[in-house]
Amino acid sequence: VMSILLHGDAAFAGQGVVYETFHLSDLPSYTTNGTIHVVVNNQIGFTTDPRMARSSPYPTDVARVVNAPIFHVNADNPEAVMYVCNVAAEWRNTFNKDVVVDLVCYRRRGHNEMDEPMFTQPLMYKQIHKQVPVLKKYADKLIADGTVTLQEFEEEIAKYDRICEEAYTRSKDNKILHIKHWLDSPWPGFFNADGEPKSMSCPPTGISEELLRHIGNVASSVPVEDFKIHPGLSRILKARAEMTESRLVDWALAEYMAFGSVLKEGIHVRLSGQDVERGTF
User: Fold this and answer.
1) CA 144, 147, 150: angle at the middle one, nearest 5?
2) With 70 as the cut, is the pLDDT of residue 225 above it?
3) For the whole prediction, is pTM greater than 0.85?
4) Nearest to residue 75, comparing CAs of 85, 88, 67, 65?
5) Which pLDDT tens digit goes with each residue over 89-125?
6) Residue 34 has what pLDDT?
7) Please, are residues 272 and 29 in contact by the beta-carbon 8 Å criterion?
8) Domain limits of the chain?
9) What confidence tens digit (pLDDT) does each residue in 153-180 have?
10) 186, CA 20 to 30 Å: which among 5, 115, 180, 253?
11) Domain 3-131, architecture per CATH
């Protein structure tokens, strides 16, 4: 499995979760063995100029914190983009580290129907309106090379338009949203026939008092004979034993019993985080 994350330029620079995730990327318990980050860099976050949105020259500079290689590529050149993506995939497969592809491009229209970019970025958008769209630019190149004919190109465009039109027509007939069709691997029985989620019902999860007492006793004992433990810790264990005896629980013992009952059924429990390793909780 190879993880690929798609980002916008403003989000990549501005969202804390990106920086936090980079810092997790090489930790032994959290690594995905390298993620490929693709940044669709249209050089304008909604309506914000880059100089008003971040302090560094490139939106991808946050990736430098883990020394990830960053490839800046002209998105108007599809073959260069493919080349760079191949290099990125090879890097990730060879070194199992994150890598970033910065697709330097532009957005032809507004952020949404209400946004007219000419209001806020008139100079930039005068330039964009002069740009030949990437599809036409690349098609002209392939036709000039003799790789495809004009007729083949026009047939492909017509075929694609037809697929979109047919899908749009079909969408008008859909009266019900089948949620399960949107799941890449449907969970059997999770949704009922007409596509609406059924109420979440849980089977009874109670266990016998005898088993709870057993877990409580184990949780308040020391597993090794003649093992000298810290006096503060022995007080905690003693209090836990007394609670078990008195049929009382606090949050910590309740959590212990929950984990213990799952472990008793042979189900592996993994706790993560530094505090777990130190035994803080």
Assistant:
1) 65
2) yes
3) no
4) 85
5) 999 999 999 999 999 999 998 888 888 888 888 999 9
6) 95
7) yes
8) 3-131, 132-170, 209-265
9) 999 999 999 999 999 999 888 777 777 6
10) 5
11) 3-Layer(aba) Sandwich (3.40)
**Whole-angstrom distance between the N-terminal and C-terminal Cα of the chain?**
34
Structure confidence at residue 110 (pLDDT)? 86
Query: 230: Cβ–Cβ under 8 A, 6 or more apart, which residues?
Result: none
How does strand 99-104 pair with strand 70-74?
A: parallel
> CA 260 → CA 207, 240, 268, 278, distances in Å?
11, 14, 10, 19
What is residue 191's predicted lDDT score, i.e. its pLDDT?
Answer: 59
Q: Is 43 left (phi over 0), alpha (psi -120 to 50) or beta?
A: left
